[in-house]
Specification:
Layout: E1 4-8, E2 11-14, H1 15-32, H2 38-55, H3 59-81, H4 98-122, H5 128-146, H6 152-169, H7 173-201, E3 208-210, E4 215-217, E5 229-231, E6 236-238, E7 248-249
Helix pairs in contact: 1-2, 1-7, 2-3, 3-5, 4-5, 5-6, 6-7
Length: about 270
């Protein structure tokens, strides 16, 4: 796997780096689109990158990719079964409050300090503080992504920008290109998640949703099924968004009588 696949900008690119590149690109694309299959891709791609970075003496990056692989199962579970607080509703995109932001900033600063000291003291890394910076940011970004907090995207923007400089310095040119793509995808992800969050907040308790065809309401308010209740065509559901309060009601379609209601398709 460490054999040369091709040469890029005068530097050999191994089969290991090429395979990790493809899987990581697919992984981030799934995250941007809120597709849960990105998490198993995270596990495989992260293990490959851990191998690559260890061989390149980027021990902090190797360690954080082991962390990515370990948290991949947790993130997958969160996106499939997670919920926020005591609500049984599925996990939706949310925004950190001031306390959450302070915890993230403090956690990042502490992690960077400890990782920088650790890498400088016990490894032969020639870039311990830069490696520790990217590693600490990646830890925070992964936790925020797993819980669907929109602030994960500005964190990834900063991490990816620092990673581009770090990997270019280490001569990992294909990985450098990958992180430039990651930077652009993070912008796309931030804008896309913000739009979804704004759209979800547009339907407030008391509003109703008209289902144009058979679908599943995933607000989890049905007392007989936390996984959602099947609604008939023309049904409307109160309180789906935000995912607290409200009740299900089945009624006949009243589109001609209520021209100003908000609509949302359920997959």
């Amino acid at each position: 796997m460490l054999e040369t696949a091709f040469t890029l900008l005068g530097t050999a690119v191994s089969w290991l780096e090429l395979l990790a590149f493809v899987l990581a690109l697919a992984n981030i694309s799934c995250n941007v689109a809120e597709i849960h299959w990105g998490w198993p891709l995270t596990i495989v791609a992260s293990l490959l990158y851990a191998w690559l970075f260890y061989a390149s003496k980027l021990y902090g990056e190797a360690g954080v990719n082991v962390f990515f692989a370990a948290t991949g199962a947790w993130g997958w579970w969160q996106w499939l079964r997670g919920h926020r607080g005591e609500s049984g509703a599925p996990l939706r995109i949310a925004q950190l409050d001031l306390r959450g932001l302070l915890w993230c900033v403090s956690g990042f600063a502490l992690a960077w300090l400890l990782l920088g000291l650790l890498l400088r003291g016990v490894t032969d890394s020639d870039v311990p503080w830069a490696d520790g910076l990217v590693t600490a940011g990646s830890l925070i970004g992964t936790l925020l992504l797993g819980r669907k907090f929109i602030e994960n995207w500005p964190v990834w923007l900063a991490v990816n920008a620092a990673s581009v400089a770090l990997f270019a310095y280490k001569g990992l040119h294909l990985t450098t290109v990958l992180y430039v793509i990651f930077f652009l995808l993070a912008i796309w992800g931030w804008l896309g998640w913000r739009k979804r969050m704004t759209d979800s907040q547009a339907v407030m308790p008391g509003d109703f949703t008209v289902i144009p065809g058979p679908g599943i309401c995933h607000c989890g308010l049905d007392p007989q099924s936390s996984a959602g209740v099947t609604l008939d065509p023309g049904s409307r559901c109160y309180g789906c968004l935000p995912p607290t309060g409200g009740k299900h009601e089945r009624v006949e379609r009243q589109e001609h009588e209520q021209p100003s209601f908000r609509k949302r398709d359920f997959e």
